[in-house]
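go over my protein:
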Amino acid sequence: MIQASTRAHPAVSGKEHWTEKRVANNGNVRLFLWQKAPVAGTPKRGTVLFVHGSSMASQPTFDLKVPGRPESSVMDWFAARGFDTWCLDHEGYGRSDKSRPINCDIANGADDLAAGSEYLLKASGAGKLLVYGISSGALRAALFAQRHPERVARLALDAFVWTGEGSPTLADRRKKLPEFIAKNRRPIDRAFVQSIFTRDHPGTADAATIDAFAEAITALDDSVPTGTYVDMCSRLPIVDPEKITVPTIIMRGQWDGIAGMDDLLEFFKRLPNPDKQFAVMAGISHASFQQKNYLTVYHILHSFFSQPEPVYRG
């Protein structure tokens, strides 16, 4: 059983990697990957690929350091427990290429994961990946798993959306859809990041974490692509649950304004693999790893990623 300890483990050193995504008739796109290897002396437990959302790059989301907040980096937390942890900046975000005049939609993000996973599977020697995606990152991760089930051991979808039914955040966001369609990028700043934590249920995250998150995000980007917003507001559903054949967990924050409960339950019911779970996370809104209850999220994800395979399937 996992202890929800607040004891900080030693910092885990990271390593940067680069790969290229092949783009027909348009050259190659450079993609940045960040790795934190298992802490020395820990038994190897698996290889995790974390997939970021619409409004921030990967390192601020998954390797955030906050003074006074023990084990704030989910990558460090999993590395301390024997997992080889990786994340990737999608095209148009962070340190990856931003040169193409496109809006970097969800399908393009799944292409990034195909290229990134091909590289990291070779670099790490892993057979399959434990994949976690949040928000639009969950859509990218799900579409990637739909396309490449042979590369995915287990799939975790957090703050996921299927048809968009019952999502007040998306209903409000659709009011600006013409603006998002008209351009490839949208501006972000510290105030925008702070709004992520007030739109659903204020109080789920502490001020120091929000400030550190905003600072880390805006240090890498002052604008981000519009493609995931356009897709989530006008092109859902993008993923077919009946084509996701890998073991899957749906993780939904109690107050998440993106992930409608009935929408997710319908998606969950259609997943064909019986090795599946649905977890509701109490006291959490949207950005799970930056919430006050972040250790609950770690626990749920660790339990699913370390679950033994069934010995009897009937």
